[in-house]
Design goal:
The protein has 15 helices and no strands. By secondary structure, the protein is mainly α. The longest helix has 28 residues.
Length: 357
Amino acid sequence: MVSRANNFDFLRLLFASAVVITHSYPLSGMLESDILNRMTSGQISFAYLGVKGFFIISGFLIFKSLLRCDNLLDFYWKRVLRLFPALIVILLLTVLLAPMVYESSIPYLKNKSVLTYIPHNISLFFLQSKIEGVFENNPYKGSINGSLWTICYEFSMYIMVSLLFFIRKKSFVKTVVFSLFISSFALSLFYPNFLYGILVRLQLNSSIFYNLMCFFTGGMLLTYLDIRSKKLENIVIIAALIVFIASIYLKISIYTCNFTLPILIILIGKRSTKYINKVGDVLGDISYGIYIYSFPIQQTLMYFFKLDTIPLMICSLILSFLMGYLSWHLVEKKALGYKNLMIQLQQKRNSLSMKKG
């Protein structure tokens, strides 16, 4: 069992911030990528670490959640509460506030893309990146919220995980998880177009799907890693870090990151480091809010102020942290207050059945 006083909230905060940093470059019109990407010759960017890190942690925690749950309805209910309330709010705010930055001869409410924006994006799998006439004169043209693309992949992973619920033999579940990790690693490297025709119908890129699946299942696989010795754990972390850095230097990180990053992130995340383990208690779990609000915040700042990269980065981080904080305390935390609703309803049904019996 993972202690609640761990480093995962801090890591998620770090990963959300990393995505904001990388996005600041193209959104401000810079042709070059972020400094980490340049230092590693295009192998690793801040956003790369951010997105992969999110999927690794999600795989670890979501799989643990499945192992604890008694039924799939409860599992999906908790996933819906975590994803949709904040997503619905950002989509509504986007449509309501978009007239402030709207530039088109077509009246706003007669613009078909306005009417389809929320339905398409709430579906997760048929995303609409633009509302015609919004941000089309920004350096990064048209896209309102370029961060939403990962949510359909995330939810696909939830579906994959949920299928393991039907495997009752625990030892076999471990074998299946290991097989999913190895197969997704092989597919992402050698057969990235496998099942392309099926996945593309859901607007899923097969190459990206297998790559993210590998990091997600890497997190799942590490639920079985139980290192009792602190000294041995330190050795594993240092070894993984050395391999990670060496592979970047040798330009072979594409073959090693799927192994080293899950080990580093999960072992560091499971720890309880003084001060940073209190981030969740002090701020709340604001990473998801930062992630989904930052892109439209950056686009809006560019529309009104035409900022350079560093000012955009600083201003958008501050505003994204603020919106993430508000999103958690006003929307997400309140929604999660209903996470046990399905269990309570099931208990009531069982109680009624016993009385009738």
